[in-house]
Amino acid sequence: MHDSIHSTPRPASAGALPAGAGEHAARADGQLEKPAVEFRDIDIHYGKFVAVRDFSLAIRKGSFVTLLGPSGCGKTTILRSIAGLVDISTGQISIGGRRVDDIPIYKRNIGLVFQSYALFPHKSVFDNVAFGLKYRNVPKPEIARRVGKALEMVRLPGSEKKLPSQLSGGQQQRIALARAIVFEPEVLLLDEPLSALDANMREEMRVEIKKIQKETGITAIFVTHDQEEALSMSDRIVVMNAGRIEQIGSPEEVYEAPATAFVADFLGKANMLPGVVASVDGQKATIALSAGQQVTALSPKVLASGARVTVVVRPQKLSVGTSATGNRLAGKVVSTSYLGGSAIYEIGIGEGTIIRANTQIDGRLAREGEAIDVGFDPAACVLMDEKGFRIA
Amino acid sequence: MTNRWQLYDARLAWMLVAPVLLLLVLFLLLPIAVMAVYTFFTFVTAGVETSALTLANWKEFLTDSYYHGFLLKTVRVGAMTAIICGVLGYFPAYFIWATTFRHKWLLLLLLIVPFWISFTIRTFSWIHILGEQGLINVTLLRLGLIDQPLQMLYTEGAVVMGLLHFLLPYMILNVYVSLESIDRTLISAARSMGCTSAQAFREVTLPLSLPGLGAGLLLCFVLAAGSYVTPQLLGSGRDALFGNLIYDTIMGQLNWPMGATLSIVLFIVLGCFAAAYTRYMGMSQIVKGLGG
């Protein structure tokens, strides 16, 4: 397993943990509950191409876990492997403690929501939602009752007789959600369900999906490349890159304490300032940036003088002008984007290095070409080592 | 005048479709109109008719059961051919759609290869297979399984066989195109909700491919019912279809007014089937199928 995962703080109350640590945490909580979904050392190859490598994860029952990463990182492959739509090459997958590697897709009891909705165009809304119940031999009156309840849950009661083509994209996706939860599957898999919707609808559906997941208490695995969706909806986020796990943590953890340079960059485009440790005073290190200026940073570990490090600061943690506190860097405004209450500045701090600052406007809006100070608190940054792993 | 040409100018559009419109009017609509007028001309004797208008030809067609028999037989052979094409053609279409073989285009090309040889020559080739001295009879005689050659050629079976040979690619392409337009995640969705692959086929794939099957059935029916070469070469006099009747009336009896009447009848009957299909399925499916 990846070094960086072990270096990540993981509270025991977490929803998703690396498989080994999961059991340990469960014991610490005094619970003997089996994880809802568990991956052990999964590798998935397509011919010579390795889509997923060394994937281990335990997902707690009732939690909402997001697989986040750029396209091609293996997140969808993992999701499809739970459903049985992709065969794993090595390792094992368990759902509710039952190994499913050899169980065919139609016996896995899984709810799937696709990006393209995948509603049956030739069937009415009722027949679409009733589909899973029909193949579970549920009696007809019971089917009618449960379909009605599911449609109420997604706020589309009375739409039974319509065809999918008569519904808007958002409504179709809600029907798809109803269809996936109506037979009470053990796990709900959501494969970028919001990507095909327009921006307003996306926000509404985000809230709705989360609400329904809480109400039903279903274990949900959500795949997305959108960091905002991941941060706002998840109990736990699994950040993936190139077939590997980069970090597992709560939204706050992965945002505030990114385990790797990749996570820092992928979630919220952090400023990455490379430099060399100039002097050390206990946990306080003075770092000479490649850009030519010096900053001080708090390190959880005493650093060696002369070590190469990268200072990672979120644009939101920076202040500019007279309110610049802590580390003050002299710079020049390269561009200004006025956003109403706040503004995003791109500030050159020498040697072609540009810092992005997203701050409240204090007094006057700085214009392009103006000299300006930019500052951040020594505790507001994270330090990465040469290999791009967080120093902890 | 500042009346400059634009890319999406309506005049340009008309100019571009004008040649095709002209051809259609001159060589399709006008001849049909002339034929329609001919049905009211008076037949005097072989090769001679007068433009004196009469309903005699229509009266003869409507009252003589000889013609009705031909029409019924033509519809029956056409329907039979279309249905056999549908049953036989669905499987290869499904196979080409479902295969993970990388060079699918090659399989589709194989379907089109027969079109490289003249349709008439392909029809003639059946004589060497089904004839008295044909492949099948000679083989069976040599093996001693039969003493007398079997009568296979010049039967209705031979005609249907020839039509199948000619029409099967049309059916396969039509079904294939409608299968190809099915979103495969629908099948994954059905499977994830508890369907075996056979059940997913029945619930999703089959119903969604029916428009293509319907288009193939109509196309095969119309082409079979309108065929003339195949029954002429592979059938006996008794297996003649409506097209052969028209040929015989015009070229044999030199009765042009009656020939025109029979042509218009076939035109109307097949037109009705096509219209009924368009009403319920939409013509776009056929266009898709022909576009391959």
From TrEMBL, chain A:
Gene3D superfamilies: 2.40.50.100, Nucleic acid-binding proteins, P-loop containing nucleotide triphosphate hydrolases. SMART domains: AAA. Residues 37-267 form the ABC transporter domain. One of its GO terms (molecular function) is ATP hydrolysis activity. InterPro entries: AAA+_ATPase, ABC_SmlMolc_Importer, ABC_transporter-like_ATP-bd, ABC_transporter-like_CS, Mo/tungstate-bd_C_term_dom, NA-bd_OB-fold, P-loop_NTPase, Transp-assoc_OB_typ2. The keyword Transport applies. The keyword Cell membrane does not apply. GO terms for biological process: quaternary ammonium group transport. GO terms for cellular component: ATP-binding cassette (ABC) transporter complex. Residues 9-20 have a biased composition (Low complexity). Residues 1-20 are annotated as: Disordered. Keywords: ATP-binding, Nucleotide-binding, Transport. Belongs to the ABC transporter superfamily. This is ABC transporter ATP-binding protein. The lineage of its organism: Bacteria, Pseudomonadati, Pseudomonadota, Alphaproteobacteria, Hyphomicrobiales.
UniProtKB/TrEMBL annotation, chain B:
Signal peptide: none annotated. PROSITE patterns: ABC_TM1 (PS50928). It is a multi-pass membrane protein. This is ABC transporter permease. One of its GO terms (biological process) is transmembrane transport. The chain crosses the membrane at residues 12-41, 77-98, 105-129, 158-177, 212-234, 254-278. It is found in: Cell membrane. It comes from Pseudaminobacter soli (ex Zhang et al. 2022). Pfam families: BPD_transp_1 (PF00528).
